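User: Structure tokens for both sequences below?

Assistant:
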Amino acid sequence: DTLFYSQIIQNNIHGLLIEKNNFSDMVKAIDKILSNHSLTHKLSKNAQKKAEWFDWTQVCKRLFNEINHV
């Protein structure tokens, strides 16, 4: 599971990745987010930009650009 997410989410860029069922690391990650407001802001901002990349309109634009360059 983590491998799939790590292809989309970069650790400390778009979010915090932890191993499945590693509750100790999950608690540490939650504490890190709650105690570091600048990190929280950075993750939120970067995650929003990454999510926009998957917007259907943006996907279509990239697809049409690729088709036109063939």
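Moving on to the next sequence.
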Amino acid sequence: VTPCLGEKKSFINILIFLLVFLQTKMGMVPYIRFFKIFELEDSIANANFQIVETESLHSPGEQYFIVAKKR
């Protein structure tokens, strides 16, 4: 399961983004990219994987389950 925090602009997601951004600037954590569902699927497909199954868990877009296999 992958959290797709770029999908929905809620208060919590914006807060998480700001905290991660500040920690990245201070060198505490590496760069973290916030994907939307279609961006994540495209990234997986471009890495030569075939997406077999997908499912949104809980709120739409917040937790996304993907099964993929190498082509």
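User: Anything stand out in the second?

Assistant: Helices lie at 11-25, 37-46.
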